[in-house]
Amino acid sequence: MSFVIAAYAIIWLLFFGYVLKIGRSISKLEEEISKLKK
Amino acid sequence: MNFIRRNIAVVTGALTVLAAVMMTISIYMIFFYAPVEKVMGLPQKIFYFHAPIAIMCYVGFFITFVSSIGYLWTSSLHWDRFAVSGAHTGLLFIALTLITGMLWGKPIWGAYWTWDPRLTTSFIMWLIYAGYMVLRSQVDDEYIRAKYSAVMGVIGFADVPLVHYSVKLWSRGLHPVIERAPGDPGMDPAMFSTFKVCVITIFILFVVVFIQRVRYEFIKCDIEHLKAVDGQ
């Protein structure tokens, strides 16, 4: 059972961690682009 | 194009929430709806996400393959951005395929890793696309970078059918060859329904990750161009 829980925990963390991380990177880039356009 | 760019953040946000909801439904179905498999027991439940994740990594690399051909054909950098986004997404999915496969393998085969044909070709596939990323990081000129990585994106895709057919090509492996009649899912109806829901969940997650990666690549390029204009 511990292997199954570990697998699903890793899937959950990696997916949503990645989505969150890239979302933050996009926000930073959007801030930078708005500064450059000013 | 501007309309898509303006609304893409809203669409991606909605898809992320949908993915989280679908993930919860899938996990509920896996543990409380689908029966426990008689031979493998609980570890078989890893299959419900392991197989769709493996399928979607093929899709990511197929996007890289098609976009690489598109770049070599047109020399438009838009294709290169789609190609690298496909490779990034595929790389995440193949990494998860390998991790979940190892966690499934340990209780069933008694080892996290064996040099089974499917595992070996999957590992080679991970190495190819990790190499693709390393190659991109080493070239500064965006057109040369796009050209080299497009060539690698086309050649590297040759490993994808090898991974898929490895269990049939080399029968010595531990991965079972599943023989079944056309239309027969080869599993219990409750298991098959759960599997279908998991495929939809992983597909939505794939779309979210891919769209976010495409957005990132396009914005990054816009910044580089704005900086280049400022510098002139």
Q: What oligomeric state do the depicted chains represent? A: heterodimer
* Low-pLDDT segments, ≥5 res of chain B: none
Q: Whole-number average pLDDT of chain B? A: 87
Count of separate DSSP helical elements of chain B: 7
Radius of gyration of chain A: 16 Å
Name the overall outline of chain A. rod-shaped
The tally of beta strands of chain B, per DSSP, is 0
Proportion of beta-strand residues of chain B: under 5%
Q: Give the proportion of residues in helices of chain B.
A: over 70%
Unreliable runs of chain A? none
CA-CA gap between termini of chain A: 56 Å
Shape of chain B: globular
Number of helices of chain A: 1
Strand-and-helix sequence of chain B, N→C?
Answer: HHHHHHH
Roughly how many Å apart are the termini of chain B?
27 Å
Q: Residue-averaged pLDDT of chain A, rounded? A: 85
**Whole-number radius of gyration of chain B?**
20 Å
Order of secondary-structure elements of chain A:
H
Strand content of chain A: under 5%
Main beta sheet strand tally, sense and closure of chain B: none
Helix content of chain A: over 70%
